[in-house]
Amino acid sequence: MKYAYPALFRPTEAGYSVRFPDIKQGATMGETLVEATENAEDFLCGALYEMEIGGKQVPPVSNPADIKAAEGQFVAMVCVDTEEYYRWHETKLVNKTVVIPAWMNREAQAANINFSRVLQTALSKELQLAAVK
Q: What is the pTM of this model?
């Protein structure tokens, strides 16, 4: 799922702190604005991912215009994609039982075909996902 949430960036002596008014369970930071933004994306995606897999309600998105920033602070939208996050972080393998003709099994084994790799490649193509690594 794709999301965009407003984040409140605050300059500090160490760089930038970032918090999300709609996400109550923490904050992040970075030494540079680029690092703070990257960390904000990772924090937001991780928090939303945990809500999704935990069956918790994802909070509604505040209107950025309604967020009051103190002097020196600013609001910026941070966009994330939890489906992409799943693909990078859910690397646990699962067993699937498949059925193929015996003759096909013999020929594939004789050719040293990796059944898991073939299935992953076919599923990636069918689901229009990035190629299997």
A: 0.71
